Amino acid sequence: MRGSEVWSWGAGTHGQLASGSDCDAFTPHLVCALSGKDVVQIACGGAHAVAVLGNGEAMTWGRGLSGALGHGNESSWNLPNPVKSLQGIKISSAAAGWNHTAFVTESGGLYTCGDGTFGQLGLGDTKTRFLPCLVEHLTSFFVTMVACGMRHTLALVQGPSEETAVYAFGSNRRGQLGIEIPQQPQTQGTKNVACILKPQSITTLNSKKLVAISANGDHSAALTVTGQLYLWGRGFCNNRDMSIPCAAALGVEICQVSLGWSHGLAISGASLSLSHLCKCLHSSMFLLSQEVFSERFLCLPKVGKLGMRALVVAAGSEHSAAVFENGEVMVWGWAEHGQLGLSTTENQNIPQRVVLESKGIPSDPCSMVGSQTNDGINIQTLIQCGSGFTFLLQIPCSSECTNSSNQG
């Protein structure tokens, strides 16, 4: 394998599969426009996606509504297109929301573009931006990670003394910013939505030594260096919304978290079993091995591969995926657009194995990040889910693959 290999499947009506077509794909297809390039990360949003290359270049494709692609207009693209206004600025990571995008630079800066109706761009207003703009309010910090929900954004920053903090901005209608602010009075013709237009610190997380954040839909999560998971935002199964981050009482350390619209996934660091944060987000978590973390839970069918470790998880709008230690990719959930890659639109309650055409997926693990060995080549396998579509990224790596988790 020379360079990365990228695979996509699912909804493609806006070109979000980067295949040169606007059609849905019900099985995985190699993305020729990206395969062979040094792709190090892919982020998926509502109907658009971003690729970050090893040289710091950012490429976007899919639905261009509100300037989400950062190309200076609202045109959609069914092939990856470089974000020209960021050329000369090295991008280290990116995140995609429903119609907005965020880019983290190698020097710790944050750029945003797209729909700003709810202040999710962090630029102090509700204007749409067709080109990425620097979030000036965070220039005194070093941004290490960004996460985009449907209409809100989180930025994990590091201060001069290496202390960490999370800054949030955008819609706070369901408490997804983790900041208690008064609700705006509803008037005729306006949305009853509380918004924060400039990044504001989530003060309850200031002393927590955070290493990762996640956002999707109207809820958010953060992970500490000790494996403590914090959750806030929309409540499910008749649970109230939570505007202040709450520590999940799980009894195990968490090493990775990924949120979907109304569900989440987490991997426990102790056993590395795949966990499912069901729709009762604030009151329950459930291991696929059927070990109960709390009293109230949504009973899920048992995975047929007990004892197999999950290395990477990804939650889409209404579907989920995981990469396991033997290299297999398992998917489950909603399948209307083929986002499970199983050649069918039948929903799946039990994780099912995805096959990448005739090639299959490399086997034999070399590290804890989804890296496998195939004919002497070490492969890091990562997966990302958007709203009805999925991307899988295979990256050649050296034998010194580290044990860091994919938190993107």
UniProtKB/TrEMBL annotation:
SUPFAM superfamilies in the record: RCC1/BLIP-II (SSF50985)
Repeat in keyword set: yes
Keywords: Repeat
Short name of one Pfam family: WD40_RLD
Domain of life: Eukaryota
RCC repeat residues: 4-55, 56-107, 108-159, 164-226, 327-396
Residue stretches making up the RCC1-like domain: 5-356
PANTHER family named among the record's database cross-references: ANKYRIN REPEAT-CONTAINING PROTEIN, REGULATOR OF CHROMOSOME CONDENSATION
Protein name: RCC1-like domain-containing protein
